[in-house]
Amino acid sequence: MPDHTDTLQPPLLEVQGLKKDFPVKRGLFGGPRKYVHAVDDLSFTLSPGETIGVVGESGCGKSTAARMIVRLVEPTAGRVLLNGVDITALPPAKMREFRRSIQFIFQDPYSSLNPRLRAGDIVSEPLVNFGIARGSELTERVEWLFDRVGLRRELIDRLPHEFSGGQRQRLGIARALAVNPKVIVADEAVSALDVSVQAQVINLLRDLQDEFGIAYIFIAHDLAVVQHISHRVAVMYLGQMVEFGARDAVFRSPQHPYTEALMNSVPIPDPEVTTTDVVLSGEVPSPMNPPPGCRFHTRCPLAIDKCRSVQPPIKEVAPGHRVACHLR
Ligand code: SF4
To answer: Of 243, 326, 328, which is best to mutate to test ligand 1, by the most ligand atoms within 8 angstroms of its C-beta?
Structure first.
């Protein structure tokens, strides 16, 4: 798998300082408005044909970040540029053109697929909506998409509930693929599948990338899956990116104590991934009231005084490898 860095190719997608604060409903007695600080100052670039894996514990903001990138959630601050165009500032009519280029695959395709539509209609809907195909061309295109994602053509008339989990995810991929996207954002797309089905879906995504040059932002909590599919990896903790770099650099030589602890918390089938003494303990603090200084300091075994009051900036520790820690 080729290595991708910030400088190899002009970026297809640029995420710049993305931030999301969700207002919390006021209680019976009012009081000051509170916010969940879901994502804070997220920045990275994505090249054509590249996969960036985003990892972190549940509640780290990775799914909110994914939804902001495709504008299912409006950011509080920051912007997303696709081929140099700021899509976060586009009015809905203009955004429609860009919807074709950037597609989303959900964790549970069942909840995102209309249960009353037949599989063929689910896949043909975006082709009709975007005026890509009609009549016999539409039928041929849907059949081709079924073939391409490994679904038998006789399933075209079935309803989503008649599909297995893996087949439903293939259906979601066919629907996303229908409009020739440049970027697919996959949010925990294989997490609900059995391990053998996971591998088949991941291999399908990689084949489609090789064939069509699609770039992926692949959100997952399973490190082995992320290691398998990603060119570069972003590690998030409590809404912030704490480490970012080439897949092998991050997995084989993690520089942030949180990344080290994540690697140590699960077995990764790679002899070159070495484990250290840093282990994860304690709970993730509330994103409504994140700790001052380094947000990881309440769980970090290496914390020093400065960590409790000064937020570490994310800085380059090696070419293309960025880390937010006072000790690096
Ligand atoms: Fe740990 Fe301090 Fe580094 Fe944060 S800045 S990860 S608390 S050593």
So the answer is: 326
Helix (H, G, I), strand (E, B) or coil at 157: helix
Residue 40 makes CB contacts below 8 A (sequence gap 6+) with 19, 61, 239, 240
Full-model pTM? 0.90
Query: Are residues 59 and 202 part of one domain?
Result: yes
Q: What is the pLDDT of residues 179-217, one digit of tens each?
A: 999 999 999 888 878 888 889 999 999 999 999 999 999
What are the tens digits of pLDDT across the range 242-263? 999 999 999 999 999 999 999 8
The Cα–Cα gap between 323 and 321 comes to: 7
Domain span holding position 228: 13-26+33-101+181-323
Ligand 1: residue whose CA is nearest its atom 3: 325
Q: How many domains does the chain have?
A: 2
The atom of ligand 1 lying closest to the CA of 307 is 2
CA of 7 to the centre of ligand 1 (A): 28
